[in-house]
Design a protein that fits this description.
Elements: H1 8-11, H2 17-21, E1 37-44, H3 51-57, H4 59-68, E2 87-94, E3 103-107, H5 110-119, H6 127-145, H7 154-165, H8 172-202, H9 210-227, E4 232-238, H10 251-257, H11 262-276, E5 284-289, H12 298-311, E6 316-317
Parallel strand pairs: 1-2, 1-4, 4-5, 5-6
Antiparallel strand pairs: 2-3
Helix pairs in contact: 4-6, 5-8, 6-7, 6-8, 7-8, 10-12, 11-12
Length: about 325
């Protein structure tokens, strides 16, 4: 069992307006960087939910967010790969009371946007190919960081990347600046990811505040869009989606009172959505994973899925 990192609230910086401002950023001139991608992950830590299994169900999405295209694809590659922006990855949780849940900023797009603007944007003849190589090298480090037994050493990162990038970037000063940005980014990811895993292992919630979490995500998405209207947001929720805090909104009592009937469950979902007044799924792609894997009867599970399908008609319910 891990203890909660003492630097969690300061070093990792909970969501705030100053942080959201970092989502923006642009090139001073030359080729622009595409819109920032913002991936928001929500993991259910309630005791009625298997958090480890839920984490595994979204691990592929997490890995893709943090590694494959973390630096983005600023220009169409010779292989025809479409453009995409750098990625900001945010992680929060479902606990017994939504305000108690920590919010982790695993990576931001700001450092990447600045690197592109400072070193690559005006070099139209070679920036696409050079950036592709950088992205591949950084992805290798990011994938290593996500391995449980990996220990990141910044000195090794600097010397290794410097050697690998020297044939492409002959100038020592430019190469040094690039290597420094990438290794700082990798070091931040390593620190934050380890702290996140420690939190997951140490935190248990006796109740499940689904609606509180949804309101929190709604505020988060609204702030992101307010600060950067062009951002492309994906919200990925890993939960059995059973709200159980002992109030009138508890889903087991609600759906059982409707005799688990599909049409009635759908109507309840539509009505409850109107009461809550949420809008984030109209501004972001929403995926919900794990409802069908809950330890519940098939009849109740079908009603629960139908409820959330009608609550979030545009979502991908997995």
């Amino acid at each position: 069992m891990f203890s909660r990192p003492r630097t969690l609230k300061t070093g990792l910086a909970l969501m705030s307006v100053p942080f959201l401002l970092l989502l923006q950023g642009c090139s001073a001139g030359g080729d622009p960087m595409p819109a920032t991608k913002v991936d928001v992950f929500v993991l259910d830590l309630s005791t009625s939910n298997d958090a480890s299994a839920q984490l595994q169900r979204i691990q592929e999405d997490i890995t893709n967010s943090l590694t494959e295209k973390a630096l983005g694809v600023p220009k169409v590659t010779p292989e025809g790969e479409p453009v995409s922006g750098p990625v900001t990855t945010i992680f929060t949780f479902i606990v017994d009371a939504a305000p108690k849940a920590e919010t982790f900023k695993l990576q931001t797009a700001a450092d990447v946007r600045k690197l592109w603007g400072d070193e690559f944007a005006t070099d139209s003849e070679r920036n696409s190919k050079s950036w592709s190589q950088l992205s591949a090298e950084y992805s290798f480090y990011a994938k290593s960081i996500l391995k449980t037994d990996y220990v990141f050493q910044k000195g090794s990162c600097v010397s290794d990347l410097d050697a690998k990038l020297k044939p492409k970037f002959m100038g020592d000063a430019k190469r040094g600046r690039i290597v420094n940005v990438l290794c700082n980014k990798a070091e931040t990811l390593a620190t934050n990811y380890r702290a996140l895993l420690s939190y997951v292992l140490s935190e248990k919630a006796p109740a499940t505040d689904i609606y509180g979490m949804l309101s929190k995500v709604d505020r988060l998405v609204t702030e992101v869009k307010k600060e950067d209207s062009s951002s492309v947001i994906t919200v990925n929720i890993a939960s059995d989606m059973q709200h159980e805090t002992g109030d009138s909104r508890d889903t087991p009592g609600k759906l059982n009172s409707l005799k688990l009937e599909s049409a009635a469950s759908c109507s309840a979902g539509t009505s409850d959505r109107e009461k809550e007044g949420l809008t984030f799924d109209t501004k972001a792609t929403l995926r919900v994973t794990g409802i069908g894997n809950a330890k519940i009867t098939a009849e109740y599970g079908n009603a629960l899925i139908r409820y959330w399908q009608c609550y979030f008609p545009n979502a991908e319910i997995r």
